[in-house]
Write a structure and sequence with these properties.
Layout lengths: L12 H14 L1 H14 L4 H4 L1 H13 L1
Keywords: Membrane, Transmembrane, Transmembrane helix
Amino acid sequence: MFPFGKNTIFLKPQRLKVTKIKFFKVYKLAIIGVINFFGYIFPFDFKYLFLPNLRDFASLWQKI
């Protein structure tokens, strides 16, 4: 079964929103891992350049 199939049309918007929040919670660590992975690939000043943005991004994921 696909997570977003024909049944998505008949779902209420509130129910769909909760489903998307659960979907993002599952992949939160994977996305943070990808960010750290690119940080190791490009170590030259990328971490210092995007450090405030990543800090806000991490706090945003903590709220979700």
